[in-house]
Amino acid sequence: MKNILTLSNISKSFDETEVLKDITVDIEKGKIISLLGKSGSGKSTLLNIIAGFEQSQSGMMFLNNKVLSDKNTFVEPQKRNIGFVFQNYALFPHMTIFDNVTFGIDSLPKEEKIKVASKLLSLVHLNGYEARYPHELSGGQQQRIALIRAMALNPELILLDEPFSGIDTMLKAQIQKELLEILKSTHKTAIIVTHDASEAMAMSDKIIYLEDGKIMQYDTPQNIYKYPKTKSIAKSFGVANFITKDKKVYCVRVDECKLKDSGEFKVSIVSQSFQGDKYILDVKFDENVFTVYSPIYLEDNNLYLSISWDKVAQIS
Predict the structure, then answer these.
(1) For the whole prediction, is pTM greater than 0.85?
(2) Phi/psi-derived region of residue 74, left when phi > 0, alpha when psi is between -120 and 50, beta in every other case
(3) Which of 3, 34, 72, 101 has the lowest CB atom count within 10 Å?
(4) What is the pLDDT of residue 34?
């Protein structure tokens, strides 16, 4: 698979604070990548450097083998052929949807602009909305307009900054699905900034996990969930239990351990809560507290924890 974007030894500081530290990564053409990390991890700064809104202090960046930045070169944002979808969508409230969508292609003849807008609005099922204004659209519709505006210039890469932060939780899954379908159907390469691991797993071919300005892991959602490289990554992607065996630390997911009437570790129940389709329990053994699931309410007598050691990931 051909790489479309290459970052090599990218570093960035603000005053005395180093925000990005030696970022090196290759992004494959046609893939959807999530840039994930806690607040302050450097993900928004990295997105802005790729877009050209910020300039790194060191390193090199290439898009389709063309230099975007190095010690001698800096290509301005408008010349990078990169689309950007802002967190608040940044639609122009005084412009119609047609004018918003075609804002970046003003130089085209009117007939050509109409063709482009019609094709893009059809892609997001919003034909007939050309004369409306942004305030007349729902949040999900506004997001789709922001996306196709970024696509109007046929960019080689699309960047999305927290695209679901303003979407109601009840609608988020549907809108994620729609956005994914649009990006995949157009074979676009996209990088999506998020702080939500479930969002990243649902959307991405691969995930870049940033921590303190460094890439801690770059892998598929499946591998990051099953084989996290650090405790913090493990905890970010769902319930993670940790246990030391033979001086090595292992991450044990809830589906890799079960409560039985016999097993390795005799446990006592610390807490138990009903969650509709299951009970969530915290159980204690030795100095360890594990979170486990059970389909039924369990009494605190003669319970043992059994671990599927062949499925657990070694952290250290």
Answers:
(1) yes
(2) beta
(3) 72
(4) 96
